């Protein structure tokens, strides 16, 4: 029996090792072995979670959460509730008894709208508080599929609005608040910034000084942008098309429907919608500089689609609260920092938004990492390009926030 388990274990380890060696990864990505191993670890833990009994899963999960919370012992934090929404606040007792009002960052964690937490992102958010000497509010918004759209963006907006109304309780300067998020959190940051800017309901609140989007996902209309075309099928780049499509689908519909197969081939929209003026304006591949269109790039055809699916989902699909790139007029949004990574299917979502914001007269700092991959920002998977991206952002924030 013991021998059998041992043999199975050795076989599994060898199989994983062979897979890691053989599975292709594009030339040029920073620390390819780290990125490969990270990708496969995510894959194994996804399947492992399905295979292991719930009790063991919960125990492992709580252990890793506790490790995360202990990661920055010098940064004080406490959990609170802002207008029904749980949040974690870092460093709201000013270090060294300063009395000047300080800046703040409201942070929305990534995880495809379906995973991660303020615990998983604890090291990153605590580090921002420590390095920038700012108050950080990390929002524990509701996750899909149990709570589909608009639960997440409603939570993020509600928590931010509550905070903006109570800044003096935290000794925060109303002119120096940033909204920030990574990946799906970048989507929520963009959407929340749009709401705060354009919804008359929030006219009397302080306007965010900065919006910061770290490799955000910003639209679920076109899963064949040049970056999706180039990197969508790799198993070794953290994110692949099938995962992102599944995540968007769950955020859209919860457990009520599954259009992932249609989405995989852009068949979840109609032919007419694909060539509509709105889509041509908001999602034109012309916004993406030619240097990003590699030899395998094809202009996707627009003469096909599924009317029935589109009719069912179009209201949400075109809603900027779900997909901030679908908003036609971006004029008046806060100064913007956008990070994109070359080896990332979401690269072009970020590029299109950066270009459109620039056209709309918004000051934009667009940082593109030529050796970068999805999830490089933070110490999730330590690499040189990841460290560089943190340093670049810290420098920007020290100047601008
Ligand atoms: C898209 O969906 C329509 C309607 O279900 C179907 O007839 C068509 O074959 C699909 N297109 C592709 C490329 O699969």
TrEMBL record:
<feature type="active site">
    <location>
        <position position="183"/>
    </location>
</feature>
<protein>
    <recommendedName>
        <fullName>Alpha/beta hydrolase fold-3 domain-containing protein</fullName>
    </recommendedName>
</protein>
<comment type="similarity">
    <text>Belongs to the 'GDXG' lipolytic enzyme family.</text>
</comment>
<dbReference type="Pfam" id="PF07859">
    <property type="entry name" value="Abhydrolase_3"/>
</dbReference>
<dbReference type="GO" id="GO:0052689">
    <property type="term" value="F:carboxylic ester hydrolase activity"/>
</dbReference>
<feature type="domain" description="Alpha/beta hydrolase fold-3">
    <location>
        <begin position="105"/>
        <end position="262"/>
    </location>
</feature>
<dbReference type="InterPro" id="IPR017157">
    <property type="entry name" value="Arylacetamide_deacetylase"/>
</dbReference>
<dbReference type="GO" id="GO:0016020">
    <property type="term" value="C:membrane"/>
</dbReference>
<feature type="active site">
    <location>
        <position position="344"/>
    </location>
</feature>
<dbReference type="InterPro" id="IPR013094">
    <property type="entry name" value="AB_hydrolase_3"/>
</dbReference>
<dbReference type="InterPro" id="IPR029058">
    <property type="entry name" value="AB_hydrolase_fold"/>
</dbReference>
<dbReference type="InterPro" id="IPR050300">
    <property type="entry name" value="GDXG_lipolytic_enzyme"/>
</dbReference>
<feature type="active site">
    <location>
        <position position="374"/>
    </location>
</feature>
<keyword id="KW-0378">Hydrolase</keyword>
<feature type="domain" description="Alpha/beta hydrolase fold-3">
    <location>
        <begin position="314"/>
        <end position="376"/>
    </location>
</feature>
């Amino acid at each position: 029996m013991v021998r059998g388990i041992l043999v199975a274990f050795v076989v599994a380890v060898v199989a994983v090792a062979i897979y890691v060696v053989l599975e292709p990864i594009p030339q040029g990505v920073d620390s390819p072995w780290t990125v490969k191993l990270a990708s496969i670890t995510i894959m194994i833990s996804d399947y492992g979670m399905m295979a292991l009994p719930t009790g063991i899963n919960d125990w492992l999960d709580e252990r890793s959460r506790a490790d995360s919370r202990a990661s920055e012992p010098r940064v004080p934090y406490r959990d609170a509730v802002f207008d029904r929404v749980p949040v974690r606040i870092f460093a709201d007792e000013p270090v060294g008894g300063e009395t000047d009002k300080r800046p703040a960052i409201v942070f929305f964690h990534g995880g495809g709208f379906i995973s991660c937490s303020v615990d998983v992102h604890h090291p990153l958010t605590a580090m921002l508080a420590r390095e920038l000497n700012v108050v950080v509010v990390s929002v524990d918004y509701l996750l899909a599929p149990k709570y589909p759209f608009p639960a997440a963006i409603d939570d993020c907006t509600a928590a931010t609005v509550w905070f903006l109304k109570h800044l003096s309780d935290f000794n925060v300067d109303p002119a120096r608040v940033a909204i920030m998020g990574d990946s799906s959190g970048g989507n929520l940051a963009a959407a929340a910034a749009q709401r705060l800017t354009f919804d008359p309901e929030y006219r009397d609140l302080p306007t965010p000084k900065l919006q910061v989007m770290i490799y955000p996902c910003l639209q679920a209309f076109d899963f064949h942008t040049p970056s999706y075309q180039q990197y969508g099928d790799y198993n070794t780049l953290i994110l692949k098309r099938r995962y992102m499509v599944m995540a968007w689908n769950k955020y859209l519909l919860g457990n009520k429907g599954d259009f992932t197969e249609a989405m995989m081939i852009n068949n979840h929209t109609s032919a007419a919608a694909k060539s509509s003026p709105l889509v041509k304006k908001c999602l034109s591949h012309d916004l993406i500089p030619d240097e990003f269109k590699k030899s395998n790039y094809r202009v996707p055809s627009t003469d096909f689609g599924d009317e029935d699916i589109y009719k069912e989902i179009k209201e949400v699909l075109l809603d900027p609260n779900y997909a901030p790139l679908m908003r036609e007029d971006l004029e008046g949004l806060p100064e913007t920092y956008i990070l994109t990574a070359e080896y990332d299917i979401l690269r072009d979502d970020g590029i299109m938004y950066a270009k459109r914001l620039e056209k709309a007269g918004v000051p934009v700092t667009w940082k593109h990492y030529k050796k970068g991959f999805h999830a490089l920002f933070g110490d999730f998977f330590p690499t040189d390009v990841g460290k560089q991206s943190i340093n670049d952002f810290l420098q920007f924030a020290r100047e601008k926030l």
